[in-house]
Amino acid sequence: MTFELARQQRLLFYDAAYLAVAPRNRIPIVTLDQAIQSAAQAAGILLLD
To answer: Could you report the per-residue pLDDT of 29-41, keeping only the tens digit for each?
Structure first.
C-alpha cells in the first residue's frame, strides 16, 4: 500500500508510510501538511482537524 499511495498521491515514501500506518493501527492522522491532508482525504483515511 505504501508505494502505491506514494505514487498515486505524489508523496515522499516517508509521508506515504505515515499515512499507511494510521489505518492499520486504527488511529487518525494529525498534520498541518496540506499534501498529507489531501492524500489522507483521497485515500479515505481519518483526519483530525
So the answer is: 999 999 999 999 9
